[in-house]
Amino acid sequence: MNIETNASLKAYNTFGIDAKTQYLVHIDREDTLIDYLNEHGLQKDKTFVMGGGSNVLFTRDFAGVVLSVELKGIDIIDEDEDYVYVKASAGEEWDDLVRFAVERNLGGLENLSLIPGNVGAAPVQNIGAYGVEQKDHFFGLEAISIREQEKRKFSKQDCKFDYRNSIFKQEYARQYIITSVTYRLDKKPVLKTDYGAIQTELEAMKIKSPGVKDVAKAVSNIRKRKLPDPEKTGNAGSFFKNPVVSKETHDRLKEEYPGLVSFPIDEEHYKLAAGWMIEYCGWKGESVGHASVHQHQALVLINLGKAKGNEVVHLSRMIRMSIENEFGIKLEYEVIIL
Ligand code: EPU
């Protein structure tokens, strides 16, 4: 176990914020993680478990321990007539797992191409894009209990997945560290290309009967056009969640704002496209200090280079206020603010 003191977190968060942590602990083996927990436990507000740093915004130096989970390995662990079971360690990059599947023509994760972050973080916030969520192909995960320092297996039901949510953000927040996740991938892929942008992209690519690789390529093309590359421009993907509202609220807003983009979830609820609302309020491309609203996707806030976390938070508060004034809707953060 390698421990750094007074370490910069700049390379450990996709926003590229140059905050420091008192201790940065690199965990590359499960037994060292268990030993660490045995000795130190996790102190409330003093220990942060980092899963690729793609969903966190540091607003100050961290007076505690950042645990960087760097467990590696992607393996096929089982297969039957219809499925292949792929187990990936928590510290693998999510997109490396997607490519592992796509290269082998295994279906399920192709719509989730190019999402930044690590495998261990994917189930925590149930990542999703282009009509697919990781829960759709999730089989199980292993996690170590912080209190008992024991490994436990979780089934799909145990995880209580929901839109950008799971048990690990609710009842079990700060109680487990995920060490590996297993996905059940289709040998006979059933492609999901009903998300409008994918159809259009496949047509532009002149592909009539797409395969897993084509869909992955189409998604990558769309993402590259709309979303900033965190290697070049610091960001954490969508900064806000798309709000879910009642049918009644939706119908009222739709009457007042006919352009409002929304998706029915069930008979009584709609999801509203927050990006549309933010753009409507004139924020797209606007900056405050070194923080800015991405010019191609208003749901994404970016670091123009030297932004402090507080500048990004300041911008986000102004956006929230303006959405609340205009639409009467409170936007929730998707990003964890520390
Ligand atoms: N829109 C605008 N202006 C904008 C942004 C969006 O009018 O600036 C409109 C679009 O035209 C479209 C609708 O809003 O009609 C939805 O936009 P988009 O397809 O870009 O998706 P999103 O709802 O803004 C969600 C996820 C993304 C995911 C995309 C694609 C959340 C919070 N975000 O964004 O996930 O990539 O769908 O599936 O659910 C992330 O979570 O970090 C993330 C990037």
Write up what this structure looks like:
The chain folds into 3 domains: 2-69, Uridine Diphospho-n-acetylenolpyruvylglucosamine Reductase, domain 2; 74-226, Uridine Diphospho-n-acetylenolpyruvylglucosamine Reductase, domain 3 (2-Layer Sandwich), CATH 3.30.465; 234-337, Uridine Diphospho-n-acetylenolpyruvylglucosamine Reductase, domain 1 (Alpha-Beta Complex), CATH 3.90.78.10. Helix 4 packs across helix 5. It is globular. The protein has helices at residues 30-40, 94-103, 156-159, 196-204, 212-226, 247-256, 274-280, 309-327; strands at 2-8, 20-27, 47-50, 56-57, 62-69, 74-79, 83-89, 128-129, 132-133, 138-145, 151-155, 176-186, 234-238, 244-246, 262-264, 269-272, 287-288, 291-293, 300-303, 336-337. Helix content is 25%, strand content 28%. The protein is an alpha+beta fold and 338 residues long. The strands form 6 sheets. The protein has a 5-stranded antiparallel beta sheet. A 4-stranded mixed beta sheet has the order 1-2-5-3. The model has no long low-confidence stretch (mean pLDDT 95). The chain binds uridine-diphosphate-2(N-acetylglucosaminyl) butyric acid. The site of uridine-diphosphate-2(N-acetylglucosaminyl) butyric acid has 17 residues, from strand 13 and helix 7.
Which helices and strands occur, and which strands form pairs?
Layout (H helix, E strand, L loop, with lengths): L1 E7 L11 E8 L2 H11 L6 E4 L5 E2 L4 E8 L4 E6 L3 E7 L4 H10 L24 E2 L2 E2 L4 E8 L5 E5 H4 L16 E11 L9 H9 L7 H15 L7 E5 L5 E3 H10 L5 E3 L4 E4 L1 H7 L6 E2 L2 E3 L6 E4 L5 H19 L8 E2 L1
Parallel strand pairs: 2-5, 3-5, 4-20
Antiparallel strand pairs: 1-2, 6-7, 7-12, 8-9, 10-11, 10-12, 13-19, 14-16, 15-16, 17-18, 18-19
Helix pairs in contact: 4-5
The structure holds uridine-diphosphate-2(N-acetylglucosaminyl) butyric acid.
